Amino acid sequence: MKRILFSLLILAGANLNAQQLQQSNTYGYNLYSLNPAFAGASGCTEVNFSHLNQWVKIEGAPVTSTLSANTRFGKELGVGGQIFVDKIGMLRQVSGLASVAYGYRFLKEHYVRAGVSFGYNQYRLDPSSAVVFDPNDPIVNGGVQSAGTVNTEFGITYQWKNLQVGWATKQLIQAYSNFGYTNLNGYGLRRHSNFFASYNYIINPTWTVRPSILAKGTNNGYQMDINADAVYKNLIFGGLGYRTKVGLIARVGVNIQNMFFLGYAYETPMSNIASYSAGSHEVIIGLKFCKKQKEKQPELTKTTPKDSMNLKPRVDTVLITKVDTVYIEKVVERIVEKTVPVENNNTTTGNSEVAIKNREKLYKPILFIFDKTTVQPNSVADLEAVLQSLKEHPNLKVELEGHTDSKGENNYNDKLSKDRVNAVRNYLIKNGVDKSRIKIKYFGEGRPVETNDSAQGRRQNRRVDVRFIE
């Protein structure tokens, strides 16, 4: 029994010495808690509360509560703040941080953000409930003590398509909190670093798999998490992880109307302490508010000057149909086809082969309403014109490219652009175009044709581009 108690004290002492930062098993649902550069990264306002109870049934084990919030102002400026209370045995820490971050996009698909945090840590040491082995211990005889110190953080993140990596340093400026004990140093904060990387592998519009790793620690040693999570329709989340020197972690979560999130994580220790602990439990509650703008849809011009165009009636009425996620409504439109003069100056018919090569400039993008995969009625005639051209020229192929505006998270926009391009693809297939003649690409928000700073620009960026290829 003495050897067991001694081993427990060694284990507890080692962990108390190492855990100068709050622990978390649900950081994947709140990346801002890892890195200040994630402040405002989603473009939405996020509020998260988590509570972690480590090593249940072991008295004095860490108990941590964290409240954080972050949002974005303008296009790239993010701000955030967090407060956490961490209690380990007779030491209690209350900390507050404020963060600012800024993002920069380059080469269209590459995105970098950097952020800093400044805050203050307040410590309180209360030995009144401690089990005393040495009555002359200066900490025991010193009574209740309080001290504080500043806290600084820096972080940077990089995203390319579905790959996301981040590095951050906690306690950037190392400091000591002097409790006033004679001949004893204060409570020192060591500089910590963490590295996070994840990849969203979109299996289909329903399922996404997200492997990730997290390495954290000091120069004296690092701890690593290896995770694999799955997401069903951005509604149900679940995953498993392995933490070196600790054990296994399981987590689940549910996303309600893309606004309210509730998650739970359980860590089961695999070391000797497992015989005395019921594991660690953590719950997280999150709120997300994304501004959705109701934007007036533009009307198609009914006619174009006849001196440069030859008006061709394409359809008078389009039958109301439903194909997967594409909805066609009754419209009355005319498709404008551009004639290309040839050497004999025949401006009425033009050269058929040259006209085909120039149709890429003719067909308008298929536009979409904000956060929707439904083709607008004003774009139905353009979609029918694409279909007609493919039917008239059996050797012609088409390339479809899906895009979004910059509202919302990058990963969500990647999936949204894929759903949009698949909606157009499915419509063509259902109407007789062989799938081997259709190529698709999707770029999320990475290739805007107009600025995302205006409603009109965002409207033009929510599109599927159509290109004919030989």
Task: Please give a structural write-up.
- The chain has 470 residues and is an alpha+beta fold.
- It has helices spanning 2-18, 138-141, 352-357, 359-362, 377-392, 410-430, 455-461, and strands spanning 45-53, 63-73, 77-88, 91-106, 110-125, 145-160, 163-170, 175-177, 187-189, 192-199, 201-202, 207-218, 221-232, 236-243, 247-256, 260-269, 280-289, 310-315, 321-323, 326-328, 333-337, 366-367, 397-402, 438-442, 463-469.
- The strands form five sheets. A 14-stranded antiparallel β-barrel has the order 1-2-3-4-5-6-7-10-12-13-14-15-16-17. A four-stranded mixed sheet has the order 22-25-23-24.
- It is elongated and about 95 Å long.
Short description:
The protein is an alpha+beta fold and 470 residues long. It has seven helices and 25 strands.
State mean pLDDT (0 to 100 scale). Answer: 77
Shape: elongated
Which residues sit in consecutive blocks of at least 5 with pLDDT less than 50? 1-18, 294-362
Strand order of the largest sheet: 1-2-3-4-5-6-7-10-12-13-14-15-16-17
- Radius of gyration of CA atoms, rounded to a whole number: 30 Å
What summary fits the major beta sheet? 14 strands, antiparallel, barrel
Estimated share of beta-strand residues: 35-45%
Q: How far is the first residue's CA from the last residue's CA?
A: 81 Å
Instruction: Summarize the amount of helix as a percent range.
Output: 10-25%
* Contiguous helical run count: 7
Structural class by SSE content: alpha+beta
Number of strands: 25
